[in-house]
Amino acid sequence: MKIKEARYNFLVQQHKNRVYSYSMYMLRNRMDADDVTQEVLIRIWQNLDKFKMSSASAWIMKTTHNLCLDYLRKRSRVLKRDVEIDEIFEESYSDDSKVNDPSIKTHIMMMTSKVKEVIKKLPENLRSVFVLYEIQGMKYKEISSALDIPLNSVKVYLLRARKKIQEELKNIDPREVL
After folding, report:
1. From residue 104, how far is each of 35, 100, 116 by CA, in Å?
2. What is the model's pLDDT at position 94?
3. Mean pLDDT per 10-residue section of the chain, whose length is 178 residues
4. Are 20 and 33 spatial neighbours (Cβ–Cβ below 8 Å)?
5. Alpha-carbon torsion 94, 95, 101, 106, what sign?
6. With b meaning 16 or more CB within 10 Å and e meaning fewer, what string describes 106-120?
7. Which residues contact 126 (CB under 8 A, 6 or more apart)?
8. C-alpha to C-alpha distances, 176 to 63, 89, 91, 111, 159, nearest whole angstrom
9. How distant, in Å, are the alpha carbons of 13, 100, 133 from that of 62?
10. Which domains does the chain have, with CATH numbers?
11. Furthest-apart CA atoms within the chain: distance in Å
12. Under a CB-based contact definition with an 8 Å cutoff, are residues 135 and 128 in contact?
């Protein structure tokens, strides 16, 4: 029993933030992301003996993705919810230690907000791949396995997501954001 607990604790420490962050991007709601994260952690415990530790990351992200899709299917399309500031995104794309000027910090925060708005507008399949690759730092093969899609589809979706984001952002006047 101690070995199972140690394996579980190791996996939880390695993946809980990634699961939560991905859930937040997909569901755009803190309570739903909490629920999905909790359900994933329960399923890890229940299935700990059914998957290999070497493929745990892919299994966990696939489970997370599928649960997010379930939540999205259940949720009415009429309801739109705002996403809270995602700390991981902030850390990934702006380094406050290098910026001491308040106007530059404000500009970065507002641009970050615009980028996140554009990401939220992406179709679910493109958003999933983009978030897993660019924000979560997963590799193509891991994403392919986690989302159960061909490797080439991962590459195509990522390319399309990047192009859509670039298209949206090129129309933003930097003076608007200041």
Report:
1. 36, 8, 18
2. 52
3. 89 94 90 94 93 89 92 60 44 54 73 82 90 86 89 93 88 61
4. yes
5. positive
6. ebbeebbeebbebbe
7. 157, 158, 160, 161, 164
8. 40, 22, 23, 10, 27
9. 18, 40, 14
10. 1-84 (1.10.1740.10), 86-178 (1.10.10.10)
11. 60
12. no
Token representation of residue 79: 């309801």
CA 167, chain centre distance (Å) = 21
Which candidate, 31, 32, 63, 30, places its Cα nearest to that of 47? Answer: 63
- Residue 159 has a CB neighbour count (10 Å cut-off) of 12
CA 82 – CA 99 distance, rounded (Å): 28
Half-sphere exposure of 129 (CA within 13 A, CB side): 23
Residues 163 and 97: their CA atoms lie apart, in Å, by 30
Structure token digits, residue 117: 């708005």
Task: Give the Cα separation of 148 and 156 in Å (integer).
Answer: 15
Please return the burial class of 42, using the count of CB atoms within 10 Å of its CB with bins 0-12, 13-18 and 19+: exposed
- The label of the residue with tokens 């992406």 reads 122
Torsions phi, psi for 22 (to 5 deg): -60, -45
